Amino acid sequence: MKQKHIEIRDLTMAYGDRVIQQDLNFTIDGGDIFIIMGGSGCGKSTLMKHMIGLLTPAKGEVLFNDQAMWSCNEQQRQAMTQKFGVTYQSGALISSMTLEENIALPLETYTNLTHKDIRDLISLKLTLVGLEGYEKYYPSEISGGMAKRAALARAIALDPEVLFFDEPSAGLDPISARLLDDLILQLRDSLGATVVMVTHELASIFAIGTNSVFLDPETKTMIAQGDPNELLANCDDHRVQMFLRRGDLKESN
Ligand SMILES: Nc1ncnc2c1ncn2[C@@H]1O[C@H](COP(=O)(O)OP(=O)(O)OP(=O)(O)O)[C@@H](O)[C@H]1O
User: Fold this and answer.
1) Residues with a CB atom less than 6 Å from ligand 1
2) Which of 4, 174, 179, 210 is 20 to 30 A from residue 67's alpha carbon, by CA?
């Protein structure tokens, strides 16, 4: 049976006086591949930053396993965020470091593992993302798709409970994007993790998304939530249908 893993409760997000989204309420179950959707500038990345502890809510709470992230102390919040693996749209890897050094960073910072255990774990993580033997390569020496997989290897270094991705397949050709989707599914299953993703890639949304929220920039709140395939079939909101059908509503009625 599915269990609630993450809860967004009455969340309002703002930069100074400028409210970006308000009254957000939704839950994410353990094992979900949750998609944050909506048009450009509606606040998707801002929402993700609130979920990973980078931005403080103007109002409301983010809860993990029923533990509130913003009404606890800094130390407790850090303990929570250590259970997250995050990859960003750009600059995920440090260019002056080899893949091995990049992946070693979280392991050296947050664990007391020996040098040898760290090397072994790095090899294991690289193998998991299909980059066995690439330890000594620099990010500039591998393709864009490989760099995204290497960033994933770093994000899973500490066996996270939740994996966050901001536009994971941006800039990838359709086949590499599809392979990345498969990898995300595989990692979700092998880690037993929950996945939260910001993406506009409809193919990915329908292929791997199990749950979602749709943010609207005009009303500044969520206007739909649920399985993206069910939203496509049943949601009667014009804005959601426009998005999910790439502006082509001919087939929706
Ligand atoms: N650090 C910041 N300070 C002030 N305003 C910001 C900041 N970051 C983002 N914004 C504004 O907040 C709004 C939401 O931005 P955000 O990046 O979250 O949107 P998004 O939905 O992820 O956009 P996109 O799909 O284009 O990446 C935008 O109007 C943006 O200009």
Assistant:
1) 15, 20, 38, 40-46
2) 210
